[in-house]
TrEMBL record:
PROSITE patterns: HTH_CROC1. SUPFAM superfamilies: lambda repressor-like DNA-binding domains (SSF47413). Residues 44-97 form the HTH cro/C1-type domain. CDD domains: HTH_XRE (cd00093). This is Helix-turn-helix domain-containing protein. SMART domains: HTH_XRE (SM00530). One of its GO terms (molecular function) is DNA binding. InterPro entries: Cro/C1-type_HTH, DUF5753, Lambda_DNA-bd_dom_sf. It comes from the Bacteria. Pfam families: DUF5753, HTH_31.
Amino acid sequence: MCTDHHKTNNLEDHRALLKVVELHPREKPMTDPYSPKAIWGRELRHYRESAGYTQSQLAALINFAPSLISGIENGHVPAVPEFAEACDEVLNTGGALTRGLDYRKSKTERYPPWFGEWPIIETKSTMLRNFELAVIPGLLQTPAYASALLNGDEEAVAGRLERQQVLSREEPPPPKLRCVVDEGALHRPVGDAKVMQEQLLHITERAVTSALISVQVLPYGVHTGLPGSFWIASLRGGKGEVAYVETALRGLITRTFEDLEHLTDVWESIRTDSLPERDSLDLIRRTAEERWT
């Protein structure tokens, strides 16, 4: 499974049942109120309110972002064991929230355990560096592009859009997003021409209107990023870095010095070989207008 172009095998068995939907960019992602993670979120809200804490107060006590707690309580974001354990300790639940996460052992759950931590890491970051070999970065995808990429899985699309809110939060300040995209991703059809044109123009708009977002294009050719896409997250408070690497089998979250050193070297290499940002945005805009009209 991959952060930005995954589709787990358990969903492939029922693709025929999935309906492609095109969500308006300003619409609030919808979640089934009776999904396991939505029910778990309501349990968290119950224990938090019983203890007399606001979301911000609980966030300060467990060192997680208030926006993350809101997303979990509303059923948009799945919790991970580390989060549940921290809540159990502060809220004196006797371990109820951790036990409640047994639902995640189900094969139908959206994120496997090794990926579920990554959205939390994103919320605790001051900078995110992302190289994408095949598709547009997930945090910059439009709803229509994400829906086409995820075979119309409404829950997965909603989850991806929810992740994007980290870029527009107020407190703590949103992380800087530095993206390098292989040129092939601009030409790979995901959805129809309208979807692709909208997606590429969306990238340029986001990069132009936000000083926190930069996008560069790595031209066609042999480069050090060919083994695959990856993320490097710099954590708040000088707590180091964490990386996510995509493989053909599964995604891998790593904190080891050797892995981070290697990925940083790869990042610097592909960033050096990429077009300057202004030239990159011009290329993306031309591709949208000439290739996808």
